[in-house]
Specification:
The chain is of the alpha+beta class. It contains 18 helices and twelve strands. Helix 11 packs across helix 13. The structure holds protoporphyrin IX containing FE. The site of protoporphyrin IX containing FE has 24 residues, from helix 13 and helix 18.
């Protein structure tokens, strides 16, 4: 017998409307009401299965992953990401993943540490001009900082300067995408995301702007005519240009290089920025965890610049980031569609059903997480958490489509948090109430206003 439960008939129709308006609140209350496997009937006999039980997530993402493709909600992203890894499918995806995977090997990721720390220092310098107690929006600050890191790691370029419109253009594209997938028309019109609505036209202009900047960076690099593989790649762009298909020996097409760069930019920027912003909010609310963070950073770094080698020693810092991504996973839901009929714990899964393991819900499953709403980084200290199911925690997804940039994002988050903590403590303005908005990433609705305090222990 199936353990799935959920609303039926009219109830479900009303629910769909409210889910479109606010899927996060809707999914949380469905899970609270019906449990960790929720069935929601969709129009025309379709079905949505919402998953917060790790075993079921593992079935969809690993054991039977060949039967699940990315859901239709990813489709509008192809407008800007083309055949990049996030949106690609099938053989083409598998080949690209094989080619790109080695670029995210540990030694390559570590080589970006100096760029990450340098970007953090640029932010610290801009803060140094502000008086003690200055008010800032940490979400905005982290967004600019993560974009700076992306620019350096992808292209050795300053995206905050010359191409300063990148941030707003990326935000426009992400907003437009959310609007499309929330529209009732998206459910019934397969190509709704292409209709020339004002939303689409705005997005198209922003996409053209992003493509223009990225194409310019690629062609300038090609013009340098460095030989593939010559004297060490400077950044991911060099690596993409040097990459060869192992069987055919072919380089990537111009278009594919651009699609992958756009994908790294889009998939890696807002996610990491939000992870850091939520972390500062949580630290301000949990002074003991913050004291311990400051003590660790002061001890491990002893006033010098952080390096990749320090990341392994910054165990509390890393646990803080992991615990923050448990409570506020930037990728809050993962959506798939069944290719052929399947069965999940006795529940029939007809072809084309939407199956959604949701990190936001999995990370709060009380069977896996005692005191699920409590912020407790000790859960992620080395040696802890062996009793948990491996799929109880999925900030970077799971199975073959899992995030290729997870190691990069963890190193970046740890180094940025440690570098900022060396100098500053951020305090939430009193009375702030967070409102996580489930767009493509989970982000704070009106930013996170915090006051900046220079730490007494900070060394100049
Ligand atoms: C905290 C930061 C990040 C989070 C939470 C995150 C989360 C995720 C998740 C959950 C997926 C899987 C989506 C799915 O299965 O449908 C994913 C895929 C992906 N991510 Fe990340 N990501 C982060 C940072 C990055 C960075 C820094 C990069 C690149 C530099 C990146 C590149 C990608 C790519 C290319 C994919 C598609 C992989 C594939 O399907 O082969 N991500 N990410």
């Amino acid at each position: 017998m199936s353990t799935a439960a959920g609303p039926t008939g009219r109830q479900a129709l009303a629910l769909l409307r409210s889910l479109r308006a606010d899927p996060l609140t809707g999914f949380v209350s469905l899970t609270n009401h019906y449990g960790d496997f929720v069935r929601v009937p969709l129009p025309r006999g379709g079905k949505l299965l919402l998953i917060s039980r790790p075993e079921l997530a593992a079935h969809v993402l690993v054991s039977n992953q060949a039967n699940y493709r990315k859901a239709r909600t990813y489709k509008p992203m192809t407008e800007v990401l083309g055949n990049g890894l996030l949106t690609n499918e099938g053989e083409d995806w598998a080949r690209q993943r094989r080619i790109v995977q080695p670029m995210f090997a540990r030694r390559h990721i570590d080589s970006f540490a100096p760029a990450m720390v340098a970007a953090a220092h640029t932010t610290l310098e801009s803060w140094a001009a502000r008086p003690d107690g200055a008010l800032l929006d940490v979400a905005e600050e982290m967004s600019a900082l993560a974009l700076d890191v992306a620019g350096r790691a992808l292209f050795s370029a300053d995206l905050t300067g010359e191409a300063g419109a990148m941030g707003p253009a990326l935000a426009t594209v992400l907003d437009a995408f959310t609007k499309v997938v929330r529209s009732p028309l998206f459910l019934v019109a397969p190509n709704y995301h292409r209709w020339p609505t004002p939303n689409r036209l705005r997005a198209r202009a922003a996409e053209a702007q992003l493509h223009g900047v990225v194409d310019g960076l690629i062609s300038r690099r090609r013009a340098e005519q460095r030989l593939p593989g010559d004297a060490g790649a400077r950044d991911l762009l060099d690596m993409l240009l040097a990459a060869r298909d192992e069987t055919t020996g072919e380089p990537m097409s111009e278009q594919q290089v651009r699609d992958e760069l756009m994908t790294f930019l889009l998939a890696g920027h807002e996610t990491t920025a939000n992870a850091l912003a939520w972390t500062f909010m949580l630290l301000s609310r949990n002074p003991e965890a913050r004291d311990r963070l400051e003590a660790e950073v002061d001890e491990v770094l002893a006033g010098r610049e952080a390096t990749a080698a320090d990341a392994d020693k910054l165990t509390w810092t890393s646990a803080v980031i992991s615990e923050s991504m448990r409570l506020y996973p930037p990728a809050w839901i993962i959506e798939r569609e069944a290719i052929a009929a399947d069965e999940l714990d006795g529940e029939p899964v007809p072809a084309d059903s939407v199956v959604a393991p949701a990190p936001y819900l999995l990370h709060r499953n009380p069977d896996q997480w005692p005191n699920p709403e409590g912020f407790d980084p000790t859960r992620f200290l080395p040696g802890e958490g062996s009793a948990r199911h491996r799929f109880a925690y999925l900030p970077f997804g799971g199975g073959r489509r899992q995030c290729i940039g997870g190691g990069f994002a963890m190193l970046e988050s740890v180094l940025l948090l440690a570098t900022i903590t060396q100098r500053y403590r951020l305090d939430l303005v009193p009375g702030f109430r967070e409102e996580p908005v489930p767009t493509i990433t989970l982000r704070p609705r009106r930013g996170i206003p915090m006051r900046l305090h220079r730490r007494a222990a900070a060394l100049d």
